[in-house]
Write a structure and sequence with these properties.
Elements lengths: L1 H20 L1 E5 L13 H4 L4 H5 L1 H4 L7 H10 L4 E7 L25 H11 L3 E7 L15 H18 L8 E5 L7 H4 L1 H11 L4 E2 L9 E2 L13 E6 L18 H13 L3 E6 L9 H17 L20 E6 L2 E6 L7 E4 L5 E6 L7 E4 L3 E5 L13 E7 L15
Parallel strand pairs: 1-2, 1-8, 2-3, 3-4, 4-5, 6-7, 7-8
Antiparallel strand pairs: 9-10, 10-15, 11-14, 12-15, 13-14
Helix pairs in contact: 5-6, 5-11, 10-11
The chain binds alpha-D-glucopyranose.
């Protein structure tokens, strides 16, 4: 209990970098990549252990693929990474003493987590560890819910893994738990105790909410919705519908524009975006991800001010508009115009006086008129100036914190 209160007291300080970071890369990589049919393939296709386990011997990644991931993350404007150290399949991507089912003792013959950690450090990215509590391979992974001895063994195994991960690799920034099946309470998982150990080993670490305790941040999955004000959150999203490597036609991958819009949504709600790549069996990055993330990075290089840093929640600016949407920093609004209207842009229902408007890139000011109902930006180019993704950001300075009220009716004169 005392430990939990300490964690609360230090939360704002521990999480400052994370809030500023906004954008991270999730990496799902394990034996399942070799089958290319989603990371749940073992369960969904009911593959028996002896058959699935053989994938450990044939897992032969190329040298140090994590350097490619980290290089791309950096280029994309991402500030941190989270990699699967062990997914539900139970295969450990590091050199562990807890089980021989690991990357050092089987096919790869290497500590893949160490390579990842080193790559993050080389490219100046913060480091997160994903760890699945659920384990389909461990003999007690399911029985632990029915048999106290099995539970004891499994919790010891789990804490042993977590202890190794947070002891052997230097400073780690994020502990990202996943699926806490089959134990039905944090008491059975001994989560408070486990997270106290985590913090003892890594006092600065940030912990997610999937060990059945709320901890530092919420993790909406495959949708972007702000949690209640004051609660940190990070939306985790697949790139093409599968976390693990699964081939998909180009149109099934999020477009550059879509990724930029996801970032805007997160930023508008003071949340983060953790966007996934599922490397191929040899560790190389799917071409679609490279192409789109490179473009997102180019866009962010110029427009980052609208996304990163100390944003204000747009709770009062969430009216939908046919032309775009806002992020906000105090009295400065950033209108991400993704459907360019031509020479004039009209934003209705703003309840604050506008002091100035300009293009975020280049800072050229924009003429405007404002009456009680409408802000009209004038003399704009006929086509969107942004050639990367067709998302041009307009910076609007308000005299007071802006609000937008549109309702469903029309203006009555
Ligand atoms: C889900 C899935 C899992 C994935 C995770 C990412 O819980 O079970 O495969 O790793 O979401 O958030």
């Amino acid at each position: 209990m005392a430990k939990a209160i300490d964690a609360e007291k230090t939360r704002a300080k521990r999480m400052k970098w994370w809030h500023d970071a906004r954008f991270g890369m999730f990496v799902h990589w394990g034996l399942y990549a070799q089958l290319g049919r989603h990371e749940w393939v073992m369960n969904r296709e009911r593959i028996p252990f002896p058959e699935y386990e053989k994938l450990a011997a044939t897992f032969k990644p190329k040298p140090r693929p994590a350097r490619d991931w980290a290089r791309l993350a950096k280029k994309a404007g991402m500030k941190y990474m989270v990699m699967t150290t062990k997914h539900h399949e139970g295969f450990c991507n590091w050199d562990t003493k807890q089980t021989d089912y690991n990357s050092a003792k089987t096919g790869p013959g290497r500590d893949l987590v160490r390579e990842y950690v080193e790559a993050c450090r080389e490219f100046g990215l913060r480091i997160g560890f994903y760890y699945s509590l659920m384990d389909w391979h461990h003999p007690d992974g399911a029985n632990c819910a029915k048999d106290e001895n099995a539970r004891r063994r499994f919790v010891d195994f789990t804490q042993g893994c977590v202890r190794e991960l947070l002891t052997n690799y230097g400073k780690i920034d994020i502990m990202w738990y996943d699926v806490s099946w089959p134990l039905s309470s944090p008491e059975l998982w001994e989560s408070a105790n486990m997270n106290a150990m985590v913090r003892e080993l890594q006092p600065h670490i940030i912990i997610n909410n999937r060990s059945q305790l709320p901890e530092d941040f919420g993790t909406p999955e495959e949708h972007i919705r702000a949690e209640q004000a004051g609660r940190a959150w990070e939306a985790c999203m697949t790139f093409n519908g599968s976390w693990g490597w699964q081939p998909a036609p180009p149109e099934d991958w999020h477009s550059t524009r879509r990724v930029i819009d996801m970032l805007r949504q997160c930023s508008a709600g003071c949340g983060n975006l953790l966007l996934n790549i599922g490397p191929k069996p040899d560790g190389s990055i799917p071409e679609e991800a490279t192409e789109r993330l490179t473009a997102v990075g180019k866009w962010l290089e110029k427009n980052g001010e609208a996304a990163y840093g100390a944003v204000t929640r747009c709770d009062n600016l969430f009216e939908w508009m046919p032309t775009g949407a806002f992020t906000l920093k105090g009295k400065t609004g950033y209108f991400w115009c993704s459907r360019w209207p031509g020479k004039e842009l009209v934003i209705g229902g703003l309840q604050a006086k506008v002091k100035g408007a300009s293009f975020l890139i280049g800072g050229k000011s924009i003429k405007f008129e404002q009456d009680k109902e409408r802000l009209i930006l004038k003399g704009l180019p006929a086509a969107s100036p942004d050639k990367i993704a067709g998302v041009t950001v307009l910076k609007i300075e308000f005299a007071s914190t802006p609000k937008q009220i549109l309702g469903a009716g029309c203006v009555v004169i």
